[in-house]
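INFO  loader      accepted 1 record
INFO  loader      residues=305
INFO  predictor   begin
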Amino acid sequence: MELALIAFQKMIVMFIILIAGVIAYKTNIVTREGNSTLSNLLLLVVNPVVIFMSFQMDFTHELFVRLWISILFAFICHAAAILISYIAISSKNENYDIERVSAIYSNCGFIGIPIINALFGQEGVFYLASYIAVFNILLWTQGYMLMTGKTSAKHILKGICSPCVIAALLGIVCFCLRIRLFAQADEAFSHIADMNTPLAMIVAGVTMAQSDIIKAVRNMRLYYVCLLKLLIIPIAAAVILRLFRADEVLTMTSIIEIACPVGASCTMFAIRYNRNAVYASELYTVSTLLSAISLPVVIMLANLI
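INFO  predictor   done
INFO  writer      dumping tokens
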């Protein structure tokens, strides 16, 4: 219960920053193009630095074992999400590809990193880095094939070679070889990592401000997909992960990551591959709003399982 309360309090803080992003867009301080630049800065610089820095820890055999367990848990969470989404969302639905990708792939970077960092600190982000690496690999393989109906070695390679995956691999190598940054580099990278929460929520706020929120909240179909994404899939994953009786921080990190709202990646895929980008954006907006309530609920239920 205490962890759920902390998560709720942190979500309030993050939503206040998100509102600043909405205001910034409405007052033309940040434009659509400017938000794209900020998003790239977050994805290509800040997030990779956060992930790399999470591995700047003293090597222990226990942490090394947990690292591989966290990778296994990431695959289990995504497998559960894929299975449930394919059962619950019929391919006869005209937007089934958007809905399935939205249900499977969460906003584990923008929202996941600041939440996990606030709840569990560097150890939580250490496990989270594995989740993000698996997320990127699956997004550019299963997610890409779902949205396009095609297989492409180029995009699979792109997923594997994304900055977050590379940062995770470099971090793991440094962790295993006990390579630590010198003091000045550690301080500089830490300052960059500290940008993650405010920058992520401002980007989320600007993105939400571009959607027709009133229209979105009236679409009942959105709530069905959000129910799958925010409650059913995370609770199913929690039941499975609890069977392993693994470390609590490791387990809760995986559960929280799969319980995060719809990822912005779905909207970006929809734009890129000529799918219903408006609907994808509405799912992103509504799920982000609802996650302020659903995420603490999932944490509370996971603690009871």
